[in-house]
Design goal:
By secondary structure, the chain is α+β, with helices and mostly antiparallel strands. The strands form nine sheets. Strands 29, 30, 31, 32, 33, 34, 35, 36, 37 and 38 form a ten-stranded mixed beta sheet that branches. A seven-stranded mixed beta sheet has the order 2-3-6-4-7-11-8, with helices on both faces. Helix 4 runs parallel beside helix 8 (about 155-165) and helix 9 packs across helix 13 (about 360-380).
Length: about 900
């Protein structure tokens, strides 16, 4: 401590000398601080202390304990509560919501859900019916706590909100419970919360350690923020890959709450944030939503002023990316909000100015904004319901502008087309599937293609999801350019590009007139290929689709011997493009033809891949099965670098893509253990994005990794991993990072005096203050489109247009022909943008630069991805080239030949 008085909560902890976590805060202090003034309580409602043995804010409540307390509330007040499980985490923990209302409200929960679903499609209702529902329905308020597992105080705030909504007597509770139905999600990320708590329990002593470097406040890799697969669940609302979010999105569409609050923590030295949010706003927000955000903010500010709490608004946290828990609901007509509290990262933390932030501080503040939010929704119930209806109605009639329809032809990768359509349905967007072939807006539409109308209640969501860019306001962009000219960071919180067609590399065509018969698609019943016929020779699987990737992964895992053709073949008049898989009966003698046919048929059904029986291995044009260009693809054993210095998101996302999207196991290996002799058991090593690999491995580790590659290993280096491989002192990839094109050259600064200059105008001054030999300006997350080199196996099956999410400033010079291959490289400046706004100088410098490179190293191969191909498991279009590297790469090294 730095010479200031210990706060009361720490004195209490020190005096008890107890190892119990409850020692951190005295019960009297906790009750005094976590509560509401001037209310009485119904003694029939159990308190947290009576059930769990400690007062609010005194201990960090686990997920199991939170559920125990909520069940106790439900047992005491069964007519006024309902607890519902809506999902299970990867580690098997239940995710629940807890409904609180009056007896009358709870008796009609199903009726309320039906009413909100009816209002969500107002075109089907008369004006009288709309008015009747608005007059009758309560305001549904959804309070979602702890999506980041180590942002801990919100869960206990949710428990106190539930208690007060049931037990408190007096203002504002008597009024707000009459007008609302409140849903409390106590922990959106139970796996992450338990990971944090396990660490905290293991490192806690007899009193809270408040130092920023104290063990209990500094989690080891990967920390508790993320779920089991290390996903940031607050960014999964658009890709919908994780069960926690998939369940949440489905539940949202049962209730269509008027407000959805996502409740977080931020750095200890901050104060508290609630909306209105910062600029930029997504352009598909409407004025009424901004006005409602202001109303919620003003009411929360009123309570914070009365309690004497600090806060800020309209800064840092913007409303642009549509895949947050506070933004996605807005595109259904609700109001979404983020609340952020300075985190104690334990029971107490010390700020730089010496102030102490306690866990109870966070619980109390989140509790106050929770109640303030319910109050605002209650007070404005009819107006907010009317705004919800008008949002849905105006989208239905197309007031947002844009094309009437978006066409998704069943072309290219059919499995990706079907997945995109199914995901849109999951988002609550109406999709139609064509029942006949036709054409529209110069696009051929085979039967089974999809139509997405923007004239529907979720029409604004359709536009922001399917269009290449959701434009930011011109004045905001001008301010960012001004800041960049001064070397300041752009005021952007997350990525700028998310266009789903670009993420999937699927063609989507805007169109205003469509005359093709179609029926509503419910997301199921995706058409499958016919079962493969029997054969006496084998089967072919055309490569280049998500389904073919699943087939290969399953076949390798099942022990099936598979080959891959690096060149084109033509068999019985059909052209099979590069990458086609070959399953020969002769290569699998341990199974007879009938058994092998059953196995191949099962794999085809499971994967959705097209599998074609062939009665010959003779190719009328191109290579035949016996060619040296038809390579054996044995099942690789894959090591994934794990722990520091890897970026946990990248490591987890990569593991998820391989294990859950393709069913292929990987073995996470801590970076410090990569130099071990056990490395020789692996065929592939993946270095995900990360920091200083060279420092973590040490000189011996780097030499060991190079030796392993040189003897035939495949090293797949992604983003920061590629940066490591390309270092001069590592020498695994023969490329170099670029400086800023046309940047200020390095000057001669020998001595203390330099030659004089004359700065004649403002432009000269701006040039003078630029740093010397700078790196390119950082890209804040934009989708960049690529072209494909067709002369390497690494690009087999990869179609032009694959987009990568580019963040940061890593741009590399292309490999020369004697160094290796630029398997994929970025498009020309006028076609490089696939989603989001790219700074002009980035557009010029990134054009025609490598996105994926391949180089030999001894008998092995090094493959570099400039950007992470598994980013948020959302880049489905990049999966083929990633699978080529990981599942097909070992077949192209001398080690396995």
């Amino acid at each position: 401590m730095r010479g200031h008085v210990l706060p009361k909560v720490l004195i209490a902890a020190l005096l008890t000398g107890s190892l119990m976590l409850s020692a951190a805060v005295s019960a009297d202090t906790a009750v005094e601080r976590v509560g509401w003034p001037d209310v009485s309580f119904d003694q029939a409602v159990p308190t947290l202390e009576s059930v769990l043995g400690y007062a609010p804010g005194e201990r960090i409540t686990s997920v199991d304990q939170a559920h125990i307390y909520l069940r106790a509330l439900a047992a005491a007040m069964p007519e006024r509560t309902r607890m519902v499980e809506y999902a299970r985490s990867w580690e098997g923990r239940p995710l629940v919501y807890f409904l609180v209302g009056t007896e009358e409200t709870m008796a009609r929960v199903d009726e309320i859900k039906a009413g909100m679903q009816a209002l969500a499609d107002p075109a089907e209702l008369s004006d009288e019916r709309v008015e009747s529902l608005i007059d009758d329905l309560p305001a549904v308020v959804w309070l979602a706590y702890g999506v980041h597992g180590n942002e801990i105080s919100s869960t206990d705030a949710g428990l106190q909100t539930a208690y007060h909504m049931l037990a408190a007597r007096g203002a504002p509770f008597d009024t707000i419970r009459e007008n609302t139905l409140v849903a409390i999600d106590p922990s959106q990320n139970p796996d992450g919360r338990e990971r944090f708590l396990n660490h905290f329990r293991e490192t806690y002593g007899i009193a809270p350690s408040t130092s920023a470097i104290a063990a209990e406040r500094r989690e080891p890799w990967p920390a508790g923020r993320t779920n089991h697969y290390l996903f940031d669940l607050n960014r999964d609302w658009l890709p919908l890959t994780q069960p926690e979010v998939i369940g949440r999105v489905a539940t949202f569409q049962e209730f269509f709450p008027l407000v959805h609050v996502d409740i977080h923590e931020m750095g200890t030295d901050s104060s508290y944030f609630f909306p209105p949010p910062a600029q930029p706003f997504n352009p598909h927000y409407v004025n009424a939503q901004e006005e409602m955000l202001d109303a919620y903010g003003r009411n929360n500010a009123k309570w914070f002023d009365l309690f004497g709490f600090e806060y800020f608004t309209q800064a840092v946290y913007d409303a642009y990316y549509p895949g947050y828990g506070d933004s996605w609901p807005a595109f259904h007509g609700s109001v979404g909000m983020t609340f952020e509290m300075a985190s104690a990262r334990g029971l107490a933390g010390e700020r730089r100015n010496g102030e102490i932030v306690t866990y109870a501080d966070g619980v109390q503040r989140h509790f106050v904004t929770s109640v303030g939010t319910i109050e605002t929704a209650s007070t404005n119930r009819e107006a907010f319901l009317s705004n919800f209806v008008e949002y849905r109605r105006s989208a239905d009639v197309g007031e947002h502008g844009g094309p009437r329809e978006y066409l998704i032809p069943l072309a290219g990768d059919a499995s990706a087309v079907h997945k995109l359509a199914s995901n849109l349905v999951r988002h609550g967007i109406e999709i139609r599937r064509t029942t006949e072939a036709g054409s529209a807006c110069d696009s051929d539409m085979p039967e089974g293609s999809y139509l997405v109308s923007s004239r529907q209640p979720a029409g604004r969501m359709v536009r922001t999801f399917l269009e290449q860019e959701s434009p930011m306001a011109e004045d905001f962009l001008a301010e960012q350019e001004r800041r960049r000219a001064l070397g300041l960071r752009a005021e952007l919180y997350d990525i700028l590009g998310w266009s789903l067609p670009s993420l999937y590399n699927v063609e989507v065509q805007p169109c205003d007139r469509v005359s093709i018969d179609a029926e509503v698609f419910d997301g199921s019943g995706v058409p499958a290929y016919a079962q493969p016929a029997t054969s006496q020779v084998g089967w072919l699987v055309p490569w280049g689709t998500q389904a073919a990737g699943r087939f290969l992964a399953a076949a390798q895992r099942a022990g099936l011997k598979v080959q891959g053709a690096d060149e084109v073949m033509t068999i019985f008049g059909r052209r099979y493009e590069r990458g086609t898989l070959v399953v020969r009966i002769a290569d699998n003698p341990e199974r007879d033809a009938g058994e092998l046919h059953m196995m191949v048929s099962h794999l085809a059904e499971m994967s959705g891949a097209e599998v074609v029986a062939t009665g010959t291995s003779y190719s009328e044009e191109g290579v035949s099965f016996g060619s040296s260009s038809v390579m054996s693809l044995p099942a690789p054993r894959i090591a994934l670098a794990w722990d520091d210095p890897t970026t946990s998101y990248s490591a987890g996302n990569t593991r998820f893509v391989l294990e859950r999207q393709y069913g292929y196991p990987v073995e996470p290996v801590r970076v410090e253990h990569l130099p071990a002799d056990e490395l020789d058991r692996f065929d592939v090593v993946i270095l995900p994005d990360g920091g200083n690999y060279a420092n973590a491995l040490g000189e011996r580790g780097v030499d060991r990794l190079k030796e392993w590659v040189g003897r035939g290993g495949v090293l797949v280096a992604m983003s920061g991993g590629m940066r490591f491989a390309a270092q001069d002192d590592v020498g695994l990839l023969p490329t170099d990072l670029e400086r800023l094109a046309d940047g200020k050259p390095e000057g001669d600064h020998e001595g203390d005096v330099v030659d004089g200059t004359q700065l004649e105008d403002q432009d000269a001054y701006q040039s003078a203050i630029l740093p010397e030999a700078p790196r390119p300006d950082s890209i804040p997350g934009v989708l960049l489109r690529t072209k494909t080199t067709t002369d390497t196996w690494l690009s087999a099956g990869v179609r032009d247009g694959v987009a990568f999410m580019v963040e940061g400033r890593d741009v590399y010079r292309p490999l020369t022909l004697d160094e290796g291959w630029n398997a994929l490289y970025f498009e020309a400046p006028d076609n490089i943008e696939a989603g989001g706004h790219l700074w002009a100088e980035n557009k010029a410098q990134w054009a025609f630069k490598p996105a994926v490179v391949q180089a030999s190293y001894g008998d092995g191969i090094v493959i570099g991805f400039v950007s992470d191909p598994t980013f948020r498991a959302a880049l489905d279009g990049a999966n083929v080239v990633f699978l080529n590297a990981v599942l097909r790469g070992p077949g192209h090294t001398a080690r396995l030949r």
